[in-house]
């Protein structure tokens, strides 16, 4: 007897690009006359239409059904089943399903949005052909070409993509095999990766490492993704003598990001102190002729791989940025690319119902009124997908969080993303989601396979740990919906390079389509420049404060200055608060005020402050 499990089986894949789905089947054949039209593989449209007939049969009952919720959300279980069947997207070859039935968009809304979706599909088609889809920076947007190089608008780009992929895989193979080895390490091979990068140069590799790294990878990866000295020290301390067999992969598209540069300088210092030659263990992934690229060439590092200006940081997981760290951990990058490519293909259809990325964009628009009025809570019910929401935070919020639209109107757009994992988060903030302020919609990521075949274990008769996890997801989904909280569910068979590649591609495309719906440029990030500029100004002010304090503390007797006087001498009285904070931070770190030779021996700022009556300062 057929069963619902056939919906989830990963039976031999049907060789077709799009979502040929095994039809939904009903457990008890007598509950519905199952159409006999499935003698051949149905197209999705057929499946959908037949599914509509199935659900129509189901709705012919005499049961008393609850009234629809005030906001129009369907609450009748039979109608919900019909909606579930009617709208379920199935990609049979990927074994990936998207359930949008718990988002209450109406048929009228879908009809109303159709022209915008067709425009979005057209824009996406032009983007893939090489249009300047990032007009603010005058750039093409080519991350989809990374998994289908023949899509690239010219042979040079195609060749760059293919050559880089070959070089990444060859290098990784030679490191893992020991053909490329560190100059002096007892193991005689590289055993660790220390990735130095931030933002899109870290979040993708971190997400994929957590999701896909085997229990005993050929090289174990750790990350320096911030300019926190204590964090850097911690990573280097954990490496200890293993620094000698560590491959340092410095990732920076611009090659000039301060945090990454600082991390590199700190790591190079650690290498010097350990008597190791950094260049022989250093690899860079950066744009041609960037500051980092030039450093690599001058210092003769072990290897460098290019980043392309038409790939953004937040969409670089399928470039060398993501593929090199993954391959070094023994992850099958071809499978990642294949999963992404299959998902891309599915997302090229202009039939909204058959386009999973468009369906996601539809749900986002409906749920957040096209203005980000509700947050997207991402809840993967799988430990290994813990970092998916952090990855999506940059992909979604750095793409959609924009002040102006493409016509220059101030829109302050965005879509807030947060979440960790289920069922763990049920013990943290689900209380508020269920009963508190209704300012979100949920995204459940369901992984059907709990453990590798043959490894399952019943912790009570007929029940496994995975059943609990499944039950918690379904229970939370139902409990939220019962209180009118909407959700989508993305289901994959298991966490594999292919399904992870597909998830990355699904959300990259959904962001791009959604951006078209709300008329914004998803591919630039003007807002981050403001923060970087302001940080630079703080450091410049700190230099002036140091000069003023150096001079004052050099005098005999020492010249006590008030905060006001320091600000006056820095010629920026309006920066008095920042000056106060700068001095306090330096005092907390007991910074030396006077460099050797300028005026006596180095003296601690604390000593100087102790000799002054600089009022109001931290102790
Ligand atoms: O890769 P990098 O050039 O070092 O940039 C790292 C990150 O810097 C900025 O924060 C950008 O907004 C991100 O999109 C980028 O991923």
UniProtKB/TrEMBL annotation:
Reactions mediated catalytically: alpha-D-glucose 6-phosphate = beta-D-fructose 6-phosphate
GO biological process: gluconeogenesis; glucose 6-phosphate metabolic process; glycolytic process
Any Gene Ontology CC annotation: cytosol
Keyword Disulfide bond listed: no
Enzyme Commission number(s) of this protein: 5.3.1.9
Pfam families assigned: PGI
InterPro entries, per the entry: G6P_Isomerase (IPR001672), Phosphoglucose_isomerase_CS (IPR018189), SIS_dom_sf (IPR046348), SIS_PGI_1 (IPR035476), SIS_PGI_2 (IPR035482)
Pathway listed: Carbohydrate degradation; glycolysis; D-glyceraldehyde 3-phosphate and glycerone phosphate from D-glucose: step 2/4
Keywords, alphabetical: Gluconeogenesis, Glycolysis, Isomerase
Amino-acid biosynthesis among keywords: no
Entry's Gene Ontology molecular function annotations: carbohydrate derivative binding; glucose-6-phosphate isomerase activity; monosaccharide binding
Database matches in HAMAP family: G6P_isomerase
Protein family according to the UniProt entry: Belongs to the GPI family.
Protein name: Glucose-6-phosphate isomerase
């Amino acid at each position: 007897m057929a069963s619902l499990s056939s919906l989830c089986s990963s039976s031999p894949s049907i060789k077709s690009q799009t979502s040929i789905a095994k039809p939904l089947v009903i457990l008890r054949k007598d509950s519905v006359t199952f159409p006999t039209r499935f003698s051949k593989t149905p197209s999705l449209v057929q499946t959908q239409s037949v599914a509509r007939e199935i659900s129509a049969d189901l709705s012919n009952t005499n049961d008393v059904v609850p009234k629809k919720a005030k906001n129009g959300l369907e609450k009748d279980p039979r109608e919900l089943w019909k909606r579930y069947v009617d709208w379920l997207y199935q990609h049979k070859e990927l074994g990936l399903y998207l359930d949008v039935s718990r988002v209450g968009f109406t048929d009228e809304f879908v009809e109303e949005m159709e022209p915008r979706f067709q425009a979005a599909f057209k824009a996406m088609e032009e983007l893939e052909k090489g249009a300047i889809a990032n007009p603010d920076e005058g750039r093409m947007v080519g991350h989809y070409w990374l998994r289908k190089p023949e899509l690239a608008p010219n042979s040079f780009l195609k060749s760059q993509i293919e050559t880089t992929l070959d070089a990444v895989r060859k290098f990784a193979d030679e490191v893992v095999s020991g053909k490329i080895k560190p100059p002096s390490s007892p193991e005689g091979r590289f055993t660790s990766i220390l990735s130095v990068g931030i933002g899109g140069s870290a979040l993708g590799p971190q997400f994929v490492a957590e999701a896909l790294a085997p229990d005993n990878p050929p090289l174990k990866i750790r990350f320096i993704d911030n300019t926190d000295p204590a964090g850097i020290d911690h990573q280097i301390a954990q490496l200890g003598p293993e620094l000698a067999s560590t491959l340092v992969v410095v990732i920076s598209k611009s090659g000039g990001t301060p945090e990454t540069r600082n991390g590199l300088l700190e790591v190079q210092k650690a290498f010097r102190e350990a008597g190791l030659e950094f260049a022989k263990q250093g690899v860079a992934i950066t744009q041609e002729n960037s500051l980092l690229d030039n450093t690599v060439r001058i210092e003769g590092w072990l290897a460098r791989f290019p980043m392309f200006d038409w790939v953004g940081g937040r969409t670089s997981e399928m470039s060398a940025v993501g593929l090199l760290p993954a391959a070094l951990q023994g992850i099958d990058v071809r499978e990642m690319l294949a999963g992404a490519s299959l998902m891309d293909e599915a997302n090229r259809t202009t039939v909204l119902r058959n386009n999973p990325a468009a369906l996601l964009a539809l749900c986002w628009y409906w749920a957040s009124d096209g203005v980000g009025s509700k947050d997207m809570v991402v809840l993967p019910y799988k430990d290994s997908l813990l970092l998916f929401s952090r990855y999506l935070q940059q992909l979604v919020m750095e793409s959609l969080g924009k002040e102006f639209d493409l016509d220059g109107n101030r829109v302050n757009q965005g879509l807030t993303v947060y979440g960790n994992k289920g069922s763990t988060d049920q013990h943290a903030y689900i209380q508020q989601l269920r009963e508190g302020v209704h300012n979100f919609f949920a995204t459940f990521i369901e992984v059907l396979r709990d453990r590798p075949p043959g490894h399952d274990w019943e912790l009570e008769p007929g029940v496994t740990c995975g059943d609990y996890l499944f039950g918690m997801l379904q229970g939370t989904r139902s409990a939220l919906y019962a209180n009118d909280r909407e959700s989508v569910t993305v289901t994959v068979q298991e966490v594999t390079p292919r399904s992870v590649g597909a998830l990355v591609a699904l959300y990259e495309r959904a962001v791009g389509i959604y951006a078209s719906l709300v008329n914004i440029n998803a591919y630039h990030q003007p807002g981050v420049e403001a923060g970087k500029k302001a940080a630079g100004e703080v450091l410049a002010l700190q230099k002036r404060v140091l000069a003023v304090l150096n001079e004052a503390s050099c005098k005999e007797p020492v010249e006590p200055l008030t905060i006001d006087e320091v600000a006056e001498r820095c010629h920026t009285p309006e920066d008095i608060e920042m000056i106060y904070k700068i001095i306090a931070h330096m005092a907390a770190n007991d910074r030396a005020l006077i460099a050797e030779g300028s005026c006596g021996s180095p003296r601690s700022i604390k000593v100087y402050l102790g000799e002054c009556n600089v009022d109001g300062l931290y102790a």
